[in-house]
Amino acid sequence: MQLYLPIAEISLNIFMLIGLGGAVGFLSGLFGVGGGFLLTPMLIFSGIPAPVAVASVTSQVVAASTSGALSYWRRGGIDVKLALFLIVPGIWGAFGGVWTFGILRAAGQLDLVISLGYLIFLGSIGSLMLFEAARSIIKHKAGKTIPHKLPGQHSWVHGLPFRVRFKRSNLYVSILPVVVIGASIGFLGSLLGIGGGFILVPALIYILRVPGSVVIGTSLLQVLAIMAATTILHAVNSQTVDILLAFSLMVGSVIGAQFGASAGQHLRGEQLRALLAIIVLAVAIRFAMSLLLNPADPFSMTVLSGGTL
Prior knowledge:
The protein is mainly α. 68% of the residues lie in helices and 5% in strands.
């Protein structure tokens, strides 16, 4: 059954789109990540124009984050004050990302920047994750334990000025790293179509030492707010949000996430991280191939002006 996507200007099988959303939803439930950093590349590889893929995934991330954020809110697992300090600079970062998005699109360089961004971003993150997971697996088989820095311990970040007390997280920390983290997530999310939770959670734990009891809920609230603002900005400025595409992906991701969450209970943490790292690196390699290999159609025609000579 073919579904015409008016913004993407392409017809795709609706069951393929739901299945794609389900696959990413399964991975999201399995690994506990938003999935935007995997869904956007998959849409691009399926033939969806990169601008439409990036903008439409932001709305899907909003839907995926809402139920989780509400669940943590009811359980008191959100540091609202810390979330606000992340959201405000994050929205400014989203403005910057959408502005950059528009400039690159007008210059005809958006597809290249998105491909390079994912190649560098996923390649580096995937390599670090695979190294850390392999190290943990080797240590586990040898019967050794790896010392980790725990939330609550202090680092050089806690010596920076402009400190604010976050009672729910039991922190007294400078707002400077909080602002930088929030703005960076907003910029990357709006430019590349990623929720940013898989970056934000480690940053909150290892840089700010946020306790695990509130880190996931706080991250979900920040991602929800930033992606909602990003969706509106893309819809107003670039008109690249395809509602039919986003809705089809939402249906699949909600179903897939339930199965992924159940499957994730049967694997250890380091095994999950290793599997996720391999998937991330595979996507990065696919982007590298698209940049290095000759395109199937090296020529294209575009109407630059409607005037006559």
